[in-house]
Amino acid sequence: MKPLDEEQKKKIIESPPVGTWTLMLVVGLSFVVGWLFLYYGVFLPRGAVN
Amino acid sequence: MHIDPLEKKWGYISIGMAGLFVGIIMIDSFIHGIDAPSNVETINSARLHLTKEFAEDNLGVQVDEKGKITVRIVAARYGFFPKHVTVPAETPVTFRWASMDVLHGVHMPMTNMSTMIVPGYVSEVTTSFPKPAKYPLLCNEYCGLGHDHMWSNITVEAKETWQAPSITKTEETGNE
Lengths: 50, 176
Description:
Number of helices of chain A: 2
Helix content of chain B: 10-25%
Number of strands of chain B: 10
Largest sheet of chain A: none
Largest sheet of chain B: 5 strands, mixed
Mean pLDDT of chain B: 88
Oligomer: heterodimer
Order of helices and strands of chain A: HH
Order of helices and strands of chain B: HEEEEEEEEEE
Shape of chain B: globular
Mean pLDDT of chain A: 89
Distance between the termini of chain B: 57 Å
Radius of gyration of chain B: 20 Å
CATH superfamily of the largest domain in chain B: Cupredoxins -  blue copper proteins
Helix content of chain A: over 70%
Structural class of chain B: alpha+beta
Structural class of chain A: mainly alpha
Number of helices of chain B: 1
Distance between the termini of chain A: 64 Å
Shape of chain A: rod-shaped
Number of strands of chain A: 0
Low-confidence stretches of chain B: none
CATH topology of the largest domain in chain B: Immunoglobulin-like
Number of domains of chain B: 2
Strand content of chain A: under 5%
């Protein structure tokens, strides 16, 4: 594998971090979906507590 | 203070998620009347058997004249008394727990019934069970060497077949 030249390095550093955004979106959505499932799919059907 | 733009974005997402969850819980609590169980009521744990409410003859399931179902159970090392109760499904049931000695907890797996039973206090939780089933009742606070043997049973029967116990009087609190 050829080492990156300066121009390629600059291009990579200055390009938007699409991978990180995707990861943030995937983690965030998974967390929300998981929480909603536990609240509406598990907690409430078992009978509210007071 | 410098915060990286990506960290800021992740911070906004985290705060947004927390806000969404708190919002859902608050809306539900207002619309459906869901509150966190809280009951501050003291009782003399060393004299439970002398109180009207938690005397041996008064334990178990009772239905008052308005149809409210109350279950009184005493937790003591190492068991719950009475050992077995039967309640109806799809009906609000109020559990009142008192400890005779040390700190206990109670948990019914696969239900939302879970609370600590603190000596000197009456723990009260109202819940309903959606379908008929048999549930174990487990102590979930370490209370001594016999803790892992401290369990009991609750049977949830269909509302149509459940029969109210013959004793339907309710001894009012009257605790110290």
